Amino acid sequence: MVKEGKKTLLEKWEIPINHLDFDYVKQCTNPKELEKIYKILQSGEEGYYPELTKCTEEHLRALKPNSKVFRTEAPVLKKDHLDQETFQQIRQNLTKFSLSAKEKEKEVEGNPKKLKIEYPEVRQPKAPPQNGGKLDKNPADRIKSHEYEKWDKYDADAEMVKMDLQEEIQKERAERQKSQKKVVIEEIVNPIWNKMTKSEREELALKHKIKGNEYFKTKDFEEAHREYSKCIDIEPSAIAYNNRAIANIKLDRLREAIEDCDACLRVEPKNLKALMRKAQALELDDCKRSALEVLQEILKIDPENAAAKKSAEKLRKEIPSPLTGAFRMKIEDIPEELPEELSEELPEVQDVDFSKLIIPNRIVKSKMAAVAQNLGKI
């Protein structure tokens, strides 16, 4: 039962009542909508339909086996509930983690030297003018109202040009000062990473990675790309390259995304996520055959990868099949100068009279002479 004033799940998700039907459920290919229909049927707000609920569940499992609606709450497992092998594995992992944490702590404590960072000087207020803060209201170059001769010589257009030039000069000066400040900041920050210990670099890189993930969740892909780049500059890793690759894909920088995927694969050659993103970037860059080759490589590593299977099937339909009897030609570069052994074996080229090679099938007598004779008789 639903309380008064409270919307039912059907109203909340705006699912039409006629969608709660066997025919519609079997034809539906949208997993999200099926999840909503399954939750509505489980709630019992619209009635209890065990067969329809079972049909929806089976169809949803076929489309999305790892759907959240199939998750069930279970109590936390205790030592007695685990088999000996699983317990030993968990114990070993915890021991490794505690040892690595202690090693990092010792590394940080064993390096008591603090980094000396040379910050720029603090900006000081400008010195007050010597005349007690009073500005000169009548500068020497100002024309007085009664100086008519100077007013006659005054060129307003020229003065306007001077003012525009001064404004442009001030803008250029301000931009130059701003760029110089940026250079100073970069010169201060970059050497710090080189002076840090490995554990400190890893910790700082992790902070930038987490910050990049937060920007990515808010769909600020430019800032996410910047944070991932900082992470790579501080401590390059397969995860950082992988993250920057997806940011590049979102920013439509496909060539850079492929390069990041290749960098990740150099560290971890069987990284499925990097291979999948490389295939995605290649497909978007209209290199569909190359994308299919990458997907086939994924299926060699993980034959049951559903996403790779689906993408490969889609690409096979889009890529035109080669013509019958077609084959790939192997092109070899032939050097201009042949080796001495081959040049000695080749026969010398002789002059050939090509006119001797032309042999007509039959000789046709020209009629021009007979026509000329007839014309002479007339």
UniProtKB/TrEMBL annotation:
Residues 123-142 are annotated as: Disordered. Keywords: Cytoplasm, Repeat, TPR repeat. It is found in: Cytoplasm. The keyword Repeat applies. Coiled coil: none annotated. One of its GO terms (biological process) is protein targeting to mitochondrion. One of its GO terms (molecular function) is heat shock protein binding. One of its GO terms (cellular component) is mitochondrion. It comes from the Eukaryota. InterPro entries: CiliaryAsmbly_MitoImport, TPR-like_helical_dom_sf, TPR_rpt. TPR repeats lie at residues 205-238. The keyword Membrane does not apply. SMART domains: TPR. PANTHER family: RNA (RNA) POLYMERASE II ASSOCIATED PROTEIN HOMOLOG, SPAG1 AXONEMAL DYNEIN ASSEMBLY FACTOR. This is Sperm-associated antigen 1.
